[in-house]
Amino acid sequence: MAERTGIFAGDDPFALARTWLAEARTQEINDSNAMALSSVDAEGMPNVRIVLLKSIEDNGFVFFTNYGSVKAQELDQSGKAAFVIHWKTLRRQIRARGIISREDGPIADEYYASRSLKSRLGAWASDQSQPLENRAALENALAKATAEHGDNPPRPPFWGGYRLAPLELEFWGDGEARLHNRFRWRRASIDAPWDVTLLNP
Fold it and tell me: What 3-state DSSP class applies to 79?
């Protein structure tokens, strides 16, 4: 393994990612957990959008969405995805590529229950990614969801999480004169050991 010191030190990339995210939470003004998630459709055409990373587990990164959305359809179809998290104030970023699986159990229930009531009802009201006639139609759908589910809505069956188990991670730190610091963590499978390589900027 390449020698790593300072902000790159450690033998567990998930612990390192949690440390960087914790630092970002103290310095980024808004959405320190925002990440650009990339997927591809059935024809291989790429898509990218910002989603919020909700947890870093011991072997994966978890986020949540509507299972009827375009992103969910693409994730389910390919079973693979990539993301990048960039922290402008820290001058760091993390890139990942890996295997996607659904998180549709107690973890999804727990996170859904932690959201604000308006967000929980909004999940019922929005037919995410589908055409919308006008804003009034969405407001009517929200009113209907509120009347139907009240102040304790259950998690919709079409809403839950995804876990990206990376086969490759890159930790990037800004360097003087654009001579950046880049460490790539790579493994052959999600159960294999990591190989770490220092990359040219």
Answer: coil
> In this predicted model, what pLDDT tens digit does every residue of 11-64 receive, in sequence order?
999 999 999 999 999 999 899 999 999 999 999 999 999 999 999 999 999 999
| Residues involved in catalysis | 178
The closest of 23, 25, 41 to 33, measured between CA atoms, is: 25
Q: Would you say 80 and 41 are in contact if contact means Cβ atoms under 8 Å apart?
A: no
Is 54 assigned a ligand-binding role in the annotation? yes
Is 88 annotated as a binding-site member? no
- Regarding the domain delimited by 6-109+159-199, which CATH topology (the fold level of the hierarchy) does it fall under? Pnp Oxidase; Chain A (2.30.110)
C-alpha span between 4 and 70 (Å, rounded): 39
Query: Cα dihedral sign for 181, 91, 9, 60?
Result: negative
Sketch the domain layout of the chain as residue ranges. Answer: 6-109+159-199
Annotated binding residue 197: no
Tell whether residue 182 is among the known ligand binding residues.
Answer: yes
State how far the alpha carbon of 134 is from the alpha carbons of 130, 138, 144, 146, in Å.
Answer: 12, 7, 16, 19
